[in-house]
Amino acid sequence: MNKVLLAPLLVLLSIAAQAQDKFFHPGTYYTPSGEKVTGLLYIPSTTAVHLFFKSDESAHFKKIAIADIKAVVIPFKNDSLVVVTEDNKDDKKYFATFWFATPVTTFYYKIHERFSPGNHDVALGGPVARSPGTVNSNLVPMYQDGNTTREVTKANYIDVLSKAFADDAALVQKIQNKGFKFKELDEIIDEYKQESTHYKAQ
Hints:
Number of helices: 5
Strand content: 35-45%
Structural class: alpha+beta
Helix content: 10-25%
Shape: elongated
Radius of gyration: 23 Å
């Protein structure tokens, strides 16, 4: 390779490596067998099926598949994630954040990210440019169903919440009488936390 081209390339690679390093934070991940592994962690996105791990700042990173992870804790980012499956399918594992729990089930959020590319901007007499894209995130409510999780939807939320809130008969009655709409999930949860003997005892 031409030495004139080699020097700028090495500089670019060095800059890229330094930029990547800033995304690593001290943390811990746990394997499915319970082994605790501590070092520097980087999860490229909440929809990723792997994370990057380095034992220390000078080490080269390794890619750890989501199948080899049970939970992740990154104190600096206040992140605590668990790995769960969706619809009982091993090929549908994801990083979930804890939402809340009742005596009979646990609820999580699956964070779904969608990238929208930028639009072409045509300047008269000038070059064509593309505006930067955006990343849109939305929280998908999930509930524990045996050894897997399933999505809470408009079609099933009355049945799912009626079973989950069995310790609050008045709230269950209100849900079944359609006193809450699906879009009011947060309001339902807030009322449960205020009235439930489960939460009052905590």
